[in-house]
Design brief:
Layout: H1 7-43, H2 60-92, H3 103-134, H4 155-176, H5 184-209, H6 219-252, H7 259-281
């Protein structure tokens, strides 16, 4: 049975959401990331805040600013590629396949979009590792406060996440029939979704009770970071359950033609949730950068 959605409506939805993906992931967030890093190195330079930049050289600021220009240029080129592809698709009379499958191209382009951002994240992780290696254990301050999950997110969201997971898995499994009729894709989906939620749970536990990623971070800033990670993780769990449910519902009701915009919309929500919430909860003007200054030894 063919989809009952008008092809013109399908095209409008597809192009609108894909244009949004180009803007969000290749223009808006890369610019925000670049501006944030530029503001940090410009307003909190290495000579005044040496603990923030482990193993830095005299040319660190100049090189960082140059890399940010390259970073923005690469993302602009990726955006241009996306708009070019859309133009070619529009000119060729492209229409999404009625039985789905075109979402793989959305995924490939998404991976391309995330490569520059992944480079920034890897660089930050390496810097944090060097920071921990340089950290003087003698100045460690013990935080004796008892942390609870409810300190960082309402228990209601945790219940919703668990409920969404159960509903999603139940709907998915019932739709696939008896276990002896399952194909390998069903086992992979069930296993992957279960593992993802286990990893989410471990990540929350490690974030709340584990060591600081940034050993110098002020307590209030660390609390904000924990809150951000916990909220993003729990909401991500809800979102992935809803996403799996929606894709399964679309397949069940001959709406596979909506799979590409659905995948694109979901990926954008993940980016907006992760980076957007991080920027909101970790605004530069609210961060205590004094902890990164060099401490003077007592006379």
């Amino acid at each position: 049975m063919n989809s009952f959605i008008d092809p013109t409506v399908t095209l409008v939805i597809f192009y609108t959401i894909f244009i949004s993906q180009i803007f969000v992931l290749s223009l808006y967030f890369p610019y925000a990331i670049s501006q944030r890093i530029t503001n940090i190195v410009s307003n909190y330079p290495p000579d005044e805040y040496p603990k923030l930049y482990p193993n830095y050289s005299n040319k660190f600021v100049g090189r960082t600013l140059f890399r940010m220009k390259i970073f923005k240029t690469i993302n602009a080129l990726i955006a241009a590629l996306g708009f070019t592809l859309l133009g070619l698709m529009l000119g060729s009379g492209y229409t999404p396949a009625q039985k789905g499958g075109d979402e793989i191209f959305v995924m490939f382009y998404f991976i391309l979009q995330t490569l520059p951002i992944a480079y920034i994240q890897i660089s930050e992780a390496m810097m944090m590792k060097a920071m921990r290696n340089n950290f003087d254990e003698r100045i460690r301050r013990a935080d004796l406060s008892v942390r609870r999950l409810s300190d960082y997110i309402s228990p209601l969201y945790v219940v919703i996440a668990a409920f969404a997971f159960v509903i999603c898995m139940t709907y998915f499994i019932l739709d696939k029939g008896p276990i002896n009729q399952w194909e390998i894709e069903v086992f992979i989906t069930v296993g992957t979704l279960s593992i993802i939620n286990l990893v989410y749970g471990y990540n929350i536990y490690r974030t709340i009770y584990g060591k600081k990623v940034d050993p110098y971070k002020a307590t209030k800033d660390q609390e904000k970071l924990i809150k951000t990670v916990v909220q993003v993780t729990v909401i991500s769990s809800i979102m992935i359950s809803v996403f799996i449910f929606c894709t399964q519902f679309a397949d069940r009701n001959d709406l596979e033609v909506l799979d590409p915009p659905l995948v694109s919309f979901y990926l954008q929500l993940c980016a907006i949730l992760g980076m957007g919430l991080a920027f909101k909860n970790q605004q530069l003007q609210d961060i205590d950068f004094s902890v990164y200054k060099e401490e003077l030894d007592d006379a």
